């Protein structure tokens, strides 16, 4: 496993959270200054979070393409190794039962 994929899942998750937090701050400021509607009644915090989620999702999809591909590669390698271990363990069990 190369160094670029060794912590790909952690890197992707951290960057995804960072984009969400950035959007949350921007939306919070926009609602605070009245540039975006603040919601109805006491729904302001829920509105801000939902709007930040809606904005951050497509941004993450576009901006984190390389990190997402590296994470997929890391997961695929892990699944491949697990399959190899499972096959090796099954082979050992078959040998033990045949003896």
TrEMBL record:
It holds the Pfam family DUF4229. It comes from the Bacteria. The chain crosses the membrane at residues 17-40, 46-64. Keywords: Membrane, Transmembrane, Transmembrane helix. InterPro entries: DUF4229 (IPR025323). This is DUF4229 domain-containing protein. It comes from Streptomyces oryzae.
């Amino acid at each position: 496993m190369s160094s670029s994929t060794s912590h790909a899942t952690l890197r992707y998750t951290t960057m995804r959270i960072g984009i969400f937090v950035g959007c949350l701050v921007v939306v919070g400021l926009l609602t605070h200054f009245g540039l975006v509607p603040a919601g109805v009644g006491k729904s302001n915090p829920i509105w801000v979070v939902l709007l930040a989620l809606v904005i951050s999702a497509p941004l993450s999809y576009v901006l984190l393409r390389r990190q997402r591909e590296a994470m997929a590669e890391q997961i695929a390698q892990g699944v491949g190794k697990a399959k190899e271990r499972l096959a090796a363990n099954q082979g050992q069990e078959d040998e033990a039962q045949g003896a």
